Amino acid sequence: MKPSLFGYQAPTTLEDAINLLAGDADAVVLAGGQTLLPAMNFRAANPSLLVDIQHIDGLRGIAVGADSIVVKAMVRHRELELDEAVQRVNPLIAEAMQHVAHIPIRNRGTVVGSLCHADPSAEMPLLLVLLGGSVIARGPSGSREIAAEDFFHSFLTTARSHDEIVIEARFPLLPPKAGWAFDEVTRRHGDYAVVGVGCVLSLDGSSRVSGVRLAACGIADRPVRLKEAEAALNGTALGASDLDAAVAASLASVTQPDDINVSQGYRRRALGTLIHRMVARAAQRAQTAGAVS
Amino acid sequence: MTRMMKQAAPSRSADAQAEVELTVNGEVVRRTVSVRMLLSDFLRHELGLTGTHVGCEHGVCGCCTVLIDGKPGRSCLTLAVQANGYQIRTIESVAAADGTLHPVQQAFKECHGLQCGYCTPGMVMNILGRFEETEPLDLSDEGIRELLSGNLCRCTGYLNIIAAVRRAAELLGRS
Amino acid sequence: MSTRMFGARIERNVDPKLLRGEGAFVDDIPLPDALHVAFLRSPHARARIDAIDTTAAKAHPGVVAVYTSDDIGALDVEMPLLIPHPSMTNPQTQRPLARGDVHYVGQTVAMVVAVDRYTAEDAAGLIEVDYAPLPVEMDLVKALHDGAPRVHAAVPNNLAAHFVQTCGDPDGAFAAAEHVTRITVQVDRSTAAPMECRAVAARWEAVTGELTVWDGTQAPISVRGGLASVFGIDEDKVRVIAPDVGGGFGQKVLLFYPDELLVPMAAMQLGRPVKYIEDRRENFIGSSQERTQIHTIELAALKSGEVIGLRDFFLHDTGAFIPYGIAVAQVASTSIAGPYRIPNIFVEFKAVYTPTVQVTPYRGCGRPQACFAVERAMDQLAQELGLDRFEIRRRNLIAEHQFPYEREGLLFADGLKVTLDSGQYAKALEMAATELGAEDFATARAKALSEGRYLGLGLACYVEGTGLGPYEGGHVKIHPITGKVYVNTGLSTQGQGHDTVFAQIVADQLGVSPQDVIVVEGDTKAFDWGVATFASRAAVVSGNAIHKTAIAVRRKVLQAAANMLDVDIASIELRDSAAWVKGSNRFVPLAAIATASNPLRYAFNKAAQAATQFAPASKHDGPPLAEGEAPGLEATDYYSPSQSTWAYGVHAAIIEVDPGLCTVKIRKYVCIHDCGNMINPMLVEGQVMGGIAQGIGGALYEHLDYQADGNLANASLMDFLVPYATEIPDVSILHLETPSPLNPLGVKGVGEAGCIAVGAVVASGVEDALRPFGALKFHHVPLSPTMIADALEQAGH
To answer: Subunits touching C (CB < 8 Å, at least 3 pairs)?
Structure first.
């Protein structure tokens, strides 16, 4: 399984990279290559030109700021996963990243690459949507910030235009004293999520939900923010009927049809189970965080 | 069948070529190769380092795992041209010059952690790479399985490989 | 050194080489100037080929040749039917390159030979084929209906074979039954997925007229014979080498695959070495698969639980062709009664063509399917009669005093009636119960339930006919210079450790260290009488052949040493690579004995000089080499088993099911197995554990997803789920050694043992775990989360 022939350029400036993309409709960005190379080896992807961005200045590094974590384009998954500063301000990220493929893949694949690939079963797009992050895309006419909710359009499709390069992703910090949880069900360890759910939840003084964000991957053609479920949980004491209502409200979001892995019915069941469990786990962490104040 | 064609034999493809320069097992190598050559094929066929094996060419089986700038990575998902300037270590760099096995290799031998040997170089490089990281090792049943997930073995059923990781940690004083 | 090697857990001789990355798999072998092959494969499951245009491919830079069925001369015929059988009507095998029709997605249509694989794949993509797609029927049951789309025009109802076997009086048994249980079960198709895909390389030496073929095969001698025959070359001029091979599991025992004929052909025609290295996608759509069977099985029982009769009717999916005959279905049929007495058996199967990759043996070879059927039926019978699952088995297991236990009318793969020779079946069952903690399980289950967790116990027994003939050989030679022992046999290894296991056998006879025994096999130039490595036969057949041969060499050594040391033969003992006079310090090294046994004119080395210190190796009058004597310390001998020898075992597990996510976790897995005397228990455990991992794959993960149009949707390791370490639990393997009475070493085969019972154990355990939700049935493996979800849903949960 060898790739078909392509041209290869390794520009050292962003401008050169953008011009290369603009000049060839079948050119693609090569960052970590962990998704692109398999597709090319299968000849499912046959780009005419690879624009390798690994040598461009200014695309490395993680910066933890006052309200966001900035992850540059060439940051490998494993770097973000192990970054202690990030773990302190948003432990949800490291927890979710345990599920991204396997360590050798995380050593090479990039966070931004995963976001741009936009596989609806992937963990990083789900994280961005769950946390309400954004990406910065640079194109011939300059930079723009695209919010997560506007970035993922559909299956493997994002708001990025062909001649734009996403140069960084921004992940918000967790709200103070928020609880958080992430888990997914897979067929084997490290496989793409069949269904994944993340939850960030805050409790008020009387243990009622003062804020909740809930999102899922694997259930539709892109990560889904479960707003109906959030509405069903907000202000409640997370009783059994509240959880049931939240689950019931989110089932309609499961649009992914039966596939070779699982049935749609199974996805609904798994979604319901994970919502229950992630909300419970996040609430428990919120309680603990609240108790240790 | 006895008639033989005299060949004006082609020996190179018409692919665009690229110059690559990288360090493999401590030695700088320079070659001119097809721009689409995979690092796995480069190591095996350009450099004759056939210890790195190819099992799937889609990054799942781990047989092609080498150390890329010190970290385990799939050579089948890396282009030779991409590897310009990289430091690569393959299985051939692991044993001593006189053939004495490295403790990781020794542990595999003691624990019967290999049968056909095809997945073994990838396993060893993955484990070695992890052992050479400063991150603390999780040597619990789950921790070792986590480390090995990403390397397929069809022969052993993994239990002896798990034992080999533990034994290697012992031999290296990493318990 | 006098420690007995047979039975010792010694490390393998071959490991350092493999661990250093110095293995020589086919693609590692340097072949300067080699050309590379890629195949164009059919994208349709059934289609007529109306035209093939290779013009653009041939003109592509770097391409040396492009072949279709029109270009391969005498090779353009159906490849051999390896194992004929009267139950097959009009058996179909494929041609190396399709002519006229294609019968499965993946079938080879054209071959490109180019300067490298990248270019060859480019060129394959430039070949234009006009296909006229034809309708397909993928459903095994519907494929048999009148009017169903045919895989082969000449074969109506897609019926490849129909076979009935009867033992005793099944009709009578069913008439007399006090209770009959009936169940339909299904096992789905899987594939061996060895880590090294298939590979063939060939080099033709025009000067000597010799063809050398490197082939990752389990059957080098058989391949050599076939090639010599097909190409009309003397066998002596054809050398087949199976070098290091990265796993076989049965997939690599089939011959011929198209490339095994076409690559040598191309090498001979093009005057350069030619290599074909199968890629993973091709392994999925071109190399053999196995497992699909649907059994409807009935047990006729007394209320006591004694099963007096069994009827089984099954459909066996043979794929698009049947080159290996009915072997898989036949093994399934003859294993159907497992380790139970069941004296009256009716087993009938229909082998059905489907437009899919052909089915030939994969580790287990039909036994997993048979075990799944009878064990699920036993569970159901137990439930219906209100009996414990261990107890019902206890009441039916063949007792020790009943061996040899015959099943007249069921002919095993050795052509003889099934005869279970030995075992301690009841003891194995008890050991499984004890090791698992079966007695305490009810308590453990109740406690788990109170915590909202669902635990179940799974159990299954199996038998395994092993050590198939017709024969294998051994050649043992002590080298005069080093005193090392060279051993050859006609097998090849794909990871089983023959180099060490056979060395252990020889070491005991000749008093050498196993590290000083060098086993060279897998090369027709080293030894070329024999069959292949498959069907759990290496230890039994080659092991005993090598044992006999080593004994013959030992006799020669003892006699020569006695002569050289001038003592009685009874005073000689062999140890530390030398012959010693018992109770003294007098010895002569094996190297010296070997040298002295070869009356040469020229002395080359120290060993030759040393030999002169002793009396002559041979005491006789007359010429240096006596009539009837051979020089040196060397012998060749063969072992031909009278019948198969039957191994067996019991597997049990504690399994947890999460009804929310419908995932299955094996909490504890216990395997009791008996393969007779074990030559190297560490290697035996490795074989068993590897088999169990494949069994877990087949129980929970591995499913080849053929779509309605015949396309294989998951032809990659991304989507075909071979388990990682994270999916395989700890397993407790306990050995029982009931020596086989049928061969001198008392061994039985064990290569396939691990995978046979796993599916039944897992289904049994999942059913048990979900009992609180109702009488859910799991009769289909692999068991997926969707299946569990559906079952729960149907039960109102």
So the answer is: A, B
Residues A30/A9, Cβ–Cβ less than 8 Å: no
Q: State CA A14 to chain mean position distance.
A: 24
Q: What is the least distance, in Å, from the CA of B73 to any CA of chain A?
A: 5
Question: Contact, C292 vs C189, CB < 8 A?
Answer: yes
**pLDDT grade for B1, boundaries at 50, 70 and 90:** very low
> In degrees, to the nearest 5, what angle opens at C-alpha C541 toward C-alphas C539 and C546?
80
CA distance C594 to C564: 11
Residue of B42, B112, B124 to mutate, interface with C, max C Cβ within 10 Å: B112
A 10 A CB-CB count for C582 gives 10
Segment 128-147 of chain A within 8 Å of chain C by CB: none
Which class is domain C469-639?
Answer: alpha beta
Give the separation between CA C96 and CA A284, rounded to whole angstroms. Answer: 64
Q: Indicate if the alpha-carbon torsion angle A156, A158, A163, A169 is positive or negative.
A: negative
Q: Determine the length of chain C.
A: 797
Give yes or no: residues A262 and A221 share one domain. Answer: yes
The architecture of the domain spanning C289-468+642-794 is 2-Layer Sandwich (3.30)
Among the partner-chain residues C281, C713, C721, the one whose CB lies closest to the CB of A1 is C281
- DSSP letters of C343-395? -EEEEEEEEEE-SSS-B---TTTTHHHHHHHHHHHHHHHHHHHT--HHHHHHT
Q: Where in chain B is the domain with CATH 3.10.20.30?
A: 17-93
Q: CA neighbours within 13 Å on the CB side: how many for C308?
A: 16
Residue A115's domain comprises: 62-171
DSSP secondary structure letters along A37-77: HHHHHTTS---SEEEE-TT-TT---EEE-SSEEEEETT-BH
Of C761, C636, C781, which Cα lies nearest the Cα of C702?
Answer: C781
pTM for this structure? 0.97
Residues A5-36: pLDDT tens digits? 999 999 999 999 999 999 999 999 999 999 99
Confidence of residue C2 (pLDDT cuts 50, 70, 90): low
CA torsion angle for A107, A111, A112, A114 (degrees, to 10)? 90
Q: C642: which 2 tokens?
A: 């009278």
Q: How far is A22 from chain B (nearest CA, A)?
A: 22
Q: Which pLDDT does position A175 carry in this prediction?
A: 94
| Model pLDDT for residues C144-184, shown as the tens digit of each residue | 999 999 999 999 999 999 999 999 999 999 999 999 999 99
Residue C700 to residues A263, C187, C190, C315, C560: CA-CA distances in angstroms? 16, 11, 11, 22, 60
* pLDDT band at residue C627 under the 50/70/90 scheme: confident
> For the purposes of burial, counting CB atoms within 10 Å of the CB of A125, is it exposed (0-12), middle (13-18) or buried (19 or more)?
buried
Give the residue extent of every domain in chain C: 31-134+196-246+252-286, 289-468+642-794, 469-639
CATH 1.10.150.120 fits B103-171, yes or no: yes
Average pLDDT over residues A68-95: 97
Check if the beta carbon of residue C108 is closer than 8 Å to that of residue C96: yes
Q: What is the pLDDT of residue C1?
A: 42
Range list for CATH 1.10.150.120 in chain B: 103-171
- CA of A142 vs chain C CAs: smallest distance (Å): 38
The first and second tokens of residue A130, run together, are: 């769950």
Write out pLDDT tens, residues C379-430: 999 999 999 999 999 999 999 999 999 999 999 988 999 999 999 999 999 9
Q: Are A53 and A17 in contact (CB under 8 A)?
A: yes
Domain count, chain A: 3
**Domain C31-134+196-246+252-286 of CATH type 3.10.310.40:** no
Residues B100 and B171: beta-carbon distance below 8 Å: no
CA C401: distance to chain centroid?
31
